[in-house]
Amino acid sequence: MNALFSVTADAAAPGVLDAGLDLVSLLLILAGALLCLTAAIGLLRFRDVPTRLHAATKPQVLGLILICLAVALSLRSWPVVAFLVPVVLIQLATAPLSAHMVGRQAYRNGTVAQRDLVVDELAESRETPPAAGG
Question: What are the boundaries of each domain within the chain?
Fold first, then answer.
């Protein structure tokens, strides 16, 4: 009777592990969705370019990473992981770059309030345009 009981207990363990991984993936999707929602609300509610850029990059990227991790845990497949890793890496590479470019252009256009800047490292570049040669 003990041998039969141990076999059924071992067979039940993968079901418990699957349920636990599904619960973790559910929590990760909820956390990722909340972070993406806060990013969207931040884009609508914040007034100036630097704070909007912060809202567009930081929580949105973390939310995407959490959602990708949840999908990988939920599907439990190596091809899915191999697909999601480049998605996350490309997002990590492009979000800061695009935010930098938008922030730089906002500074050049004068839409960034100069009084709000603590340190203005680009003040010299406003005096002499980069293409002027001197």
Answer: 12-111
